[in-house]
Amino acid sequence: MRSAKSFNVSTANHQTFLLVGIPGMREYNSWMAFPLFVLYALTLLGNLVILFVIKTEQSLHEPMYIFLSILACSDLGLSLATIPTMLSVYWFDSREISFNACVTQMFFIHLFQWIESGILVAMAFDRVIAIQKPLRYTLLLPNTVIGKIGLAILGRSFCVCFPVPFLIKRLPFCESNVLSHSYCLHPDAMKLACADTTVNVLYGLIIVICTLGLDVVIILVSYFLILKTVLSIASQEERFKTLNTCVSHICAILIFYVPMIGVTAVHRFGRHLSPIVHMMMANIYIAVPPVLNPIVYSVKTQQIRQRIHKMFQQKIF
């Protein structure tokens, strides 16, 4: 058995964590830096353009586009909280991150993810109202109601994430301080603790079931109601036109949930896979959705597409 002295030394908390770029191939980290930088630039440009267009175009001051602007803010927040750290790892090989900075980053990552999930639910509810009661759409969803929905989403997300820093800070980290990714996540840091993490695991599981699981169920029920309404429309052309208003939202749902399910599946069942696969899935999970959302809404939403086209025409001529 170890002496009490050696036990106390070994269980002293690490003051820093080490982030990981391309596992086992640090010399190739710069290869990942450039595409990551391009994604970051496109994320900032795309979401800022969406916000500018919605703010300046009076015809877009509708519930659907207000929710879209909140989604864009969430994507910007997630990118600002993570990608600069990732770029410092890949471009400058700056792998060290302080314990407090790591905890802060994981809090904001999870916060913005829960906000995005909540916004997708609100947008599904918006589509139900717009399709079932088109004549009363703006009356049923005035700005006051949208504001309350936004505050409820923010409040729920904050309450869900608030215990995370305290759950991590109570754990001792006495052996390895090398994380699996180029940013900090609660499950990743939790695995390095040399203490019982049952509370952390149970909290994460309960939160996923009660929030993410509930969000998915509400979205599925919303689209069941939408399909029921659409199928009652006699004209096939009107059916197609009505369903087309949901395409952008369906794409946003897939963009958000598919990478999340993918990275979870790789963590749970892909331990035999190459560390590079884990690294690529983790990077896609964080970097790709925020850049795809503005592209999807710019391409599939006629009002936004026309306003952006007009804006760039004015800049050129």
Automatic annotation (TrEMBL):
Q: Keywords of this protein's UniProt record, alphabetized?
A: G-protein coupled receptor, Membrane, Olfaction, Receptor, Sensory transduction, Transducer, Transmembrane, Transmembrane helix
**Its GO biological process terms?**
cellular response to lipid
InterPro entries given in the database record: GPCR_Rhodpsn, GPCR_Rhodpsn_7TM, Olfact_rcpt, OR51/52/56-like
Q: Keyword check for Oxidoreductase, yes or no.
A: no
The question of whether NADP is a record keyword is answered with: no
Transmembrane intervals? 31-54, 66-87, 107-125, 145-168, 201-226, 247-270, 276-297
Instruction: Show the Gene3D superfamilies listed in the entry.
Output: Rhodopsin 7-helix transmembrane proteins (1.20.1070.10)
Q: Report any Pfam family annotated for this entry.
A: 7tm_4
Q: Where is the G-protein coupled receptors family 1 profile domain?
A: 46-297
Q: Where in the cell is it found?
A: Membrane
Q: Name one GO molecular function term.
A: G protein-coupled receptor activity
GO CC entries: plasma membrane
Q: How does it sit in the membrane?
A: Multi-pass membrane protein
The protein, known as: Olfactory receptor 51H1-like
Q: Which organism is it from?
A: Eublepharis macularius (Leopard gecko)
